[in-house]
Amino acid sequence: MAAQTGTLIRLELCNIFGWNVFRFSRDKKAKRKAVMLMAVWIWLLAMMVFYVGGLSYGLIWLGAGEVVPPYLFMISSLLIFIFGMFKAGSVIFRKGGYDMLCALPVSRTAVVLSRLARMYVENLLIVLAVLLPGAAVYAWSERPGPAFFLTLILGVWFVPMLPMAGAILIGALITGLSSRMRHKSLAATGLSIMTMFAILYCSMRISVLGDISPEMLKELTSVITDLLGRVYPPAMWLGAAAVQGDLHQGLFFIGASLGIFGTVSAGVSFFFHQICRGLFGNSARHDYRMGRLKEDSLLVSLCRREFRRYFSSSVYVTNTIMGPVMGCIFSGALLAVGTDTLTASLPASIDLASLVPIMFAGIFCMMTTTATSVSMEGKNWWIAKSLPLSAKNILDAKLLMNLLLFLPFYLLSQIFLILALKPGAEELFWLLLIPAVFLLFSCVYGITVNLHFPVLNWENEVSVVKQSASCVLGGMGGFLLAIPCAVGAVLVPKEHAWLLKGGICLGLLLITGFLYRKNNRFDLCGRV
Hints:
mainly alpha; 2 domains
């Protein structure tokens, strides 16, 4: 089995992040896109290095240097857990290649281990991106002993295991439960969203802020240590080995990581074929009867097709629905807490009526479906291109689907905001208009980016929804644009706020119209 596992691991890793395509492809367009994607990842890595390095330096400057190593271990572990929880089921139980592997004399354990190895390598890169800049700042400032460097060199290999085990366990449970249901994708989506809300609720309940007195704020190190111990105790074990040279806690962390990861991997391997059969098996019914045929317009038919494609992927739904859901939570929390509490915590010069619509728009447009709607067509994209349809027909359906999907969340959030803010006629106008303009811009902008950075030869939907350039650049367009607009709302005096809001709406509408016309003239057959 060792030879089988090694061969499958090499196959899994040979094209990680599209490396084989970049090395051997003769398509200059594909190589150019690979280079641009690499530039995006380098930019994100630079932002991560800047953030982690600044955070580490800030803690050291505040006199809490000894909490930097465990804090870095916790951040990297939480990133692995949160991002891995939604993709673990899709990566381990992916359909691509399953029929071929079942026909070959390959053990299920080798298949599971090879896919876990790919996840481990990807997560190890996340750990390195977080730990290395923070550890460099800590080593330069604190001058630690050999125990720190020894723990860092040995422990970094085991940091991904515990969060991976938790993410794999939750992902496997969600996938396994949904595989027994009729509507597998909708069931997996519902379970994923419920799990995310449970994690958010537990994180609020575990918050240490309610237990801190003014005297404790003077002892920042003990406060952060107590918080880390509540949120993620294993980070404290490895942190004690790095800072204090406690070998026993370091060995305990390594043993616990190996034991829990091995147990979860064995369980996934045992139920692998059973879950895959539930996911990919089909049952045919023989009582079909011809019903009444219906005729719809072209746009309605294409929009229904988009909805069917959208709800067929739990990863797609989970990744794009969180923005509208968080928008409802934001507006509902504002209604529950009241504006007086928020106004009291802000400077008197800030106009809350100008800031809230922009903040809500940024949260609401955090990830649109259009940013990856072309890529999600995958290898079936040729079907849409071969039909006697214009680019406008196809792209309008994707745009309309996104707007209709977000409409109920938008209306519910607006009701909460109106009840919370009690705006006048002018404030109500901007409260309704600004988020709507941001949403329209985000949808059109997402299509524009995805047309220029399509990924159609994917093996797993996760690589499109979470790891593609169009996901990062197109999906976060509205959110990133809301940041400078919110800064402008803070700096501009109240009497001139209407000029800022009018300029934002007019500018976005002009840009949206220009991008929309450009998208409709896009050559889908020749360039995508």
